[in-house]
Amino acid sequence: MLRALLSRWMSPRRATWGACALLVGLLGLVAWEMRHYYFNQQQLAQARTETSAQMVAQWLESALETSLHSLRGVNELYQLMTTGHLSNTELSELLDSRRHSLPVWDEVTLLTPDGSVIAGTYTSSLSAEDWTLLLALATDNGQQSGVSRVFHASDAERTPYLLHALRIEDSQGQLEALAVAWLSPSHLVNLVNQLPLREGDSVALLDVAQQLMVQRSGEGSQAATLMDIRVDTPQLARFLDSHHHNNSWIRHSPLDGDQRLFTGYKLEMAPWLVIVGEDTTVYLYDWWRRFWALLIGCLLLIGLGSLALRHYRQLYVAEQALREHRNQLAKEVATRTRAQQATELEAAQLKIAAMAFETHLGMFIADAHNRIIQVNHTFSDITGYLEGEVMGKTPALLSSGRHDKAFYRAMWQDLNKHDRWQGEVWNRRKNGEVYPQWLTISVVRNDQQEVTHYVATLSDITQRKAAEQEIHQLAFYDSLTLLPNRRLLIDRLEAALKATQREGLYSGLMFIDLDNFKTINDSLGHYLGDGLLKGVAERLAGVVRDSDTVARLGGDEFVVMLHELGESEAAAMQGAEATARKLLSALLEPIEVEGHTLQISGSIGITLFHGDDVGVSAILQQADLAMYQAKAAGRNALRFFDPSMHAAVVDRAQLEGDLRYAIERQELALFYQTQVNAEGDVMGVEALVRWHHRVRGMVSPGIFIPVAEESHLIGEIGEWVLETACQQLAQWSRSPATEGLTIAVNVSPNQFRQPRFVAQVEAVLARTAANPHRLKLEVTENLLMEDLGVIRTRMEQLRQLGVRFSLDDFGTGYSSLAYLKRLPLDQLKIDQSFVRDVLEDPADAAIVRTVIALAHSLELEVIAEGVETGAHRDWLYAEGCRTYQGYWFSRPSPVEALSL
Length: 900
What we know:
- By secondary structure, the chain is α+β, with helices and mostly antiparallel strands.
- The strands form 6 sheets. The chain has an 8-stranded mixed β-barrel.
- A hairpin with a 3-residue loop joins strand 7 (202-207) and strand 8.
- The N and C termini lie far apart (149 Å).
- Residues 421-473 form the PAC domain.
- GO terms for molecular function: cyclic-guanylate-specific phosphodiesterase activity.
- This is cyclic-guanylate-specific phosphodiesterase.
């Protein structure tokens, strides 16, 4: 019975099923290991693509932060212009200088809310696509700045470009202007080209509309310019619709068809995203190598098992035939067969273990006394030690000496407690090189929980540490001068603010702008310009203390932050000024660059801070404003920030904001000053605009007229003045006593240059029914300095309507007989600055005589303003002037108070 039972259990059928079960289990174990290794390789590839995508995103964010800071600087320049500290021409020159000093900018322009150009380097009209971003900023929805997606100049050119815009508000929070920068496509392309790529890698920059901007793929490739390709994949669409900041997916590239693992990273400052890909065939190379090795091993094992099973079947048949006669022999054969099977199985298992031991990670096995008994080939590749050189020795052979006893004591305590330890360790190779590695140690125990072996895996993380250091360097330091960049400066400035509050000591911030750097850069080339910037950086760093900070914001702008200047403001100011003068002296010394001796100077703006009275942004703005005051003072100068500067900017902005609503609030009024002939009869009046502010009271025209000119409100105000004066002319025409009076209206050059000015005058005359022959437009010599042909055409068109022209303030500008002869003028007006001192100053008397003689020779009328005494009137009469205007006859007054 027992023999039958054994025969049934050891039948060939059951042996076959047992072998199959063993094979299935073995294949399952191999499949599990391969699956685990596959996902491990995929996770490593995903980590690399995430790091690369984050690196490119940080480069782009840093470039956009530089652009945003410069746009805020443009805002400050705009405020200076609106207060009269800068003219429109000077603002345009400064904007052009800013554009050339920033590689991230191609163009920069200030726009009014309706799209008119205030100043800048790009004066062409904007298309409808341009306004997609700008209209969003023009709407009061809390958005202060924004970056566009890819736009196109026109359907014909299809040239992609990018906009970066900043909303400029008045003191009431209303939109006043837009600062718009055209971002440099080549600069963005250069940033993407800085990322090191391996074979099969790719990097791309897209906008949120899935429009491809920049793309590189493969080792050594370079992106040339912005692209105009739409990338439409389901994975990308789902990522854009999600709230995740970054995500990864695997698919075939829509551009070259290669399958890659892609990682997308969304930028916070722009509607863009960075996508970095790694070819699956590259990062799965080791996986495939291991797969084929294990597959061959399994096939060999299956072959051996098949042979053993076949041999067993033969023995089983023989044993069944001889069972009754040779039982003992059959038992011996069975025993040998089982021993042979055990030996073969053990050999196969040892072979599989040996194959698993040869992994891409370095491995070594130590006994219970921590002496190395086995290492793999990767261990030798990483450390340089062959197996025979480390056998019987402890891992202390690899120690670099960087870790103290406390480090290793803590390691062993953790290892004995948890049977596992992992961490970063600095070890030494055989050649003496110290390198970082990631080490994992596991404890092997027997059934009695006694330690029998230690198994350790190690990997070289030198490249990963270098990549982390490179990311830190690019994120916080200027790539040209190696000085801290704006991001690191702000971090240190925030720390300095806390330190001043804690220690009670003043600190200072200096804005340094190089004078005439653009001239040197344009004339000698950007290469020498970069060398000059490096030399300047070394000069600045050599003057200040080690505890101070020298940073570069971009272009030719540097910042110096001084710490611990003293407990009193006076002492801090004295110390800051002394350092600033040293910096100015250092900058004046010639700098040798590639055989060229270059001379440069600087303008320095200084502000002091103490405690938490102001924030980081305010400190930067104060120093920037003081720097522009230093430039205005003649360059190679320094200026401290004065709160009155900021107050003037705020007051100027408030005044401009109120002036925008002056007409709507009916705060403007026309005063009239009479013009009389030699007999004392009133021939006409001059219309003079006055502003009665609801809070400030009467505002001087000398204050609000320049504001209107600079803010381009003069056209609206001038049209109101013209309409009001023509209404008065129409009213006077209905009375015989006043129907012969004329009204002189001053016309601003900016108003006259408007293309619709002639049509505007025609429309006003038609609406009011005023007699055009009684309207006299007073223009100044500044109008005649540009586009004389266009100005003459417009004057002749108005002259055909009956309108007359008077040349105001003659003699104070660039007087030229050429335009007096060519233009349709009716009258010369002698400026009051000459008339006032005509009795005391022979030079003024000679000028007035010349003007009167010139007018007579050209058959023009002549009128003198500023006649304040009878003696003035008599002298002018004796010289041939027969028409007068001034306080001797009347002061400017409302129409109700006129004596006609």
